[in-house]
Design brief:
alpha+beta; ten-stranded antiparallel sheet; five-stranded mixed sheet
Length: about 425
C-alpha cells in the first residue's frame, strides 16, 4: 500500500496526483476510523449495588461500569419492565470507560416481580451493544406480626417464652418488655409446616420482684426491604406465693466473709462475666428438657424468702439439693463451661452457657471436673457435691439465669420451650 502511495506521489501526471489524493484520503479514513468501521466487539457492562432477586422499596442505586477499548462507549439506556427506554447518558466520542452511579425512582411500581434492563452501545458504525438484566422485587407492605404465646401469662420467678410469627423473612426484629430490650432468635424449624411462616422466640426471665399485673410487649419488625411493623401485645404476670421462713446460721468466720462487701462484689463480677457469654451466643446449645443435676433431698426451693444470722433477708435464687459430700453432679443440659473456679461466697462453682441468654450454675462443690471452654453434654458428670463457700452443710445450689434474671431451674425440667405447643403441653 505504501509503495503504491509513493509511486502515485512521484507521478507527474494530473491523473496520478488526483489518484494519489484519493488513495491517501482512503488510507487516512481507514487509519482514523478503522476501530469504528471494523469493530464487532460488544462493550463490557457491569452493574453493581443490585443483585438478582433483591427486594427493593422506593428507589434503587445503580453503579454502572461500561468500557469499550476500541470504538468507545456512546450510549447507556435503562428500561423497567416493558416501560419506555430511557437514555441514562450520552457520552463523548471515544469515551473508552465510564463508571457512574444512577439513582432511579421506583415509587410508581407495585408490589411484585420486576425487571431492569441496562444497555450499553458503543461508537462503532455497527453500534454493538451489551445488555444486563436484573430481576428484582418491590415490597412496600409492612410484615405481619403475631404473638403466638398462649396463654399470654407469666409468673414471678419463672421463664416466659414469647413466640413471634411473621409472614416474611426479616432483616431485624426487636422486642421490649419490662423496660428492657429482649433478643429474639429464629426457630430452627417451622412449627406450622403447612404454612410458609417465620418464627422467632425470646426467652424472658421474670424476676421474683417483678410487679404482677399487665405489661405491654412492644415488637418492631423490619423486613428485607426496610418496611417496618410495630405491634403492642398485652401480657399478664401472675404473682407467685414464695415459701417463707428459714433461718440460716453461719459460723463467725463465714459471717465475716458474707458481710465483706468486697468478697461478694468480686464473686458477682466473675459470675456476671460468665453469664454474659450466653447473652452473646445466638445458637441454642441446650437440649430440652433439662435434667435434675443431682440426686438428693430438695431442702430449699427457688424463691424461698429466708434470713441469715448476719441480718440479711432475701429470696433464695436457686434450688438446693442436699446429699452426702462426693455425690456426683451432672450438667442439666448441653453447653460450654464459662466459669470453673473457687469463689468466696459460692465455693467451688461451675457456670455453663446454654446459648440464647440461658445459663446454669452449680455451686458449693467439693470437686470441679471440667474447665473453662469445655463442651459438656446433658447428664455429663461435671463435679462432686460439697460444702465449700457460705453453707451449713453439703448440698448443691443449682442456679439458672435467663437473659440476666434468676429463674426457677425446676421449670426447665418440666417444660420444653421449643414451640408454643411444647410450652402448653410439656
Amino acid at each position: 500500500m505504501l509503495s503504491v502511495i509513493r509511486a502515485l506521489r512521484h507521478s507527474g501526471s494530473p491523473k496520478g496526483k488526483a489518484l494519489f489524493l484519493i488513495v491517501a484520503l482512503i488510507a487516512w479514513i481507514l487509519y482514523f476510523f478503522s476501530a469504528r468501521i471494523f469493530d464487532r466487539t460488544s462493550p463490557e457492562l457491569l452493574v453493581d449495588n443490585v443483585s438478582a432477586g433483591q427486594v427493593l422499596r422506593e428507589a434503587v442505586s445503580l453503579l454502572i461500569t461500561a468500557t469499550d477499548e476500541k470504538a468507545g462507549v456512546k450510549y447507556l439506556y435503562l428500561q423497567i419492565d416493558d416501560g419506555p427506554v430511557q437514555t441514562l447518558q450520552r457520552l463523548k466520542k471515544q469515551t473508552t470507560g465510564r463508571k457512574s452511579e444512577y439513582i432511579y425512582d421506583l415509587s410508581d411500581l407495585t408490589d411484585g416481580s420486576h425487571r431492569i434492563l441496562i444497555t450499553a452501545v458503543d461508537n462503532a458504525f455497527r453500534q454493538n451493544e451489551k445488555q444486563v438484566q436484573l430481576d428484582f422485587a418491590i415490597d412496600l407492605t409492612p410484615p405481619q406480626v403475631k404473638l403466638k404465646t398462649k396463654p399470654k401469662v407469666g409468673t414471678q420467678g419463672n421463664t416466659l417464652a414469647l413466640f413471634i410469627v411473621t409472614n416474611e423473612p426479616l432483616k431485624e426484629i426487636q422486642a421490649t418488655l419490662f423496660g428492657k430490650n429482649l433478643p429474639l432468635y429464629p426457630l430452627p424449624t417451622n412449627p406450622d409446616t403447612e404454612k410458609k411462616l417465620y418464627w422467632y422466640r425470646s426467652l424472658v426471665g421474670v424476676g421474683v420482684s417483678q410487679q404482677a399485673g399487665y405489661h405491654s410487649a412492644e415488637i418492631i419488625a423490619t423486613d428485607l426491604a426496610g418496611n417496618q411493623s410495630e405491634q403492642v401485645f398485652i401480657l399478664e404476670i401472675g404473682e407467685t406465693e414464695f415459701e417463707q421462713g428459714g433461718y440460716i446460721k453461719l459460723s463467725p468466720e463465714k459471717q465475716k466473709v458474707m458481710l465483706d462487701r468486697s468478697k461478694s462484689l468480686e464473686d458477682n463480677a466473675k459470675r456476671a462475666k460468665a453469664y454474659a457469654v450466653a447473652d452473646q451466643t445466638a445458637e441454642q446449645l441446650w437440649v430440652s428438657p433439662f435434667v435434675r443435676p443431682a440426686p438428693g433431698t430438695l431442702t430449699s426451693p427457688f424463691g424461698k424468702y429466708r434470713e441469715y444470722n448476719t441480718g440479711v433477708k432475701r429470696h433464695h435464687l436457686g434450688t438446693d439439693i442436699a446429699n452426702q459430700t462426693g455425690t456426683a453432679i451432672y450438667a442439666g443440659s448441653s453447653g460450654v463451661v464459662t466459669l470453673a473456679e473457687r469463689l468466696h461466697i459460692y465455693g467451688n462453682s461451675i457456670i455453663i452457657n446454654h446459648g440464647q441468654g440461658v445459663s446454669t450454675s452449680y455451686n458449693h462443690l467439693s470437686e470441679i471436673e471440667v474447665a473453662v471452654g469445655d463442651k459438656v453434654e446433658k447428664n455429663q458428670q461435671i463435679g462432686l457435691m460439697g460444702a465449700t463457700g457460705q453453707v451449713t452443710g453439703p448440698h448443691l445450689h443449682w442456679h439458672m439465669a435467663v437473659n440476666g434474671v434468676a429463674v426457677a431451674p425446676e421449670q426447665w425440667i418440666e417444660v420444653s420451650f421449643s414451640t408454643p405447643k411444647h410450652v402448653l403441653d410439656p
